[in-house]
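Hey team,

Filing this mostly as a record. A colleague (T.K.) asked me to run one chain through the structure pipeline before their review meeting, and I want the input and output archived in the tracker in case anyone asks later how it was produced. No errors, nothing strange. Just documentation.

Input sequence:
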Amino acid sequence: MGTITRRVRTAATQSATVIAGVVSLGFLTAPADAHHSYAMYDGSVYRVFTGVMVRVIPNAAHFEMHFVPLNEQRDALLRDEDGEPLVWVVQMESAREAFQHGITRESFPEGTVMSMGVHPRRDGRPAGDRGDSGLFRCPQGKAPEPGMHCDSVEGSTAFGEGEIPEEGPVAR
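Output structure:
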């Protein structure tokens, strides 16, 4: 019985040592980013939109804005092949950071006209990531002139830092 007990104790000690080593190794490594990969977004290019807010979702990890882009004349919503409004979903910073920049459901109610740059999804779906783009809200009841964005409208409001980027490849 003594030999079996020693073997069990030896195995238990070895297992505990391995577990302790793995746990210790975890403390020695650099902290990993808790967020998902941004590989789905094309960070090498910006698309710039002026659109009408559909809804705001203040998720803890990533604040989301859902909007329908306006056409270049700024007098109609873009529509999909079925004639339905083409809703884009843009992932932004955390809800905490968004709140610090004044970005809330209340500051972007449904129907608000806004402008921002978006790193689009690589698969062509109508979604993207804001990146470092500026975010601007047009004054209520006003839209920009054709081909322009909210940052050009007198009385517009900027949220956070950044400017509306040029559409196309990101300047490095």
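Quick notes for T.K.: Residues 15-35 have pLDDT under 50 and may be disordered. Residues 1-32 form one domain.
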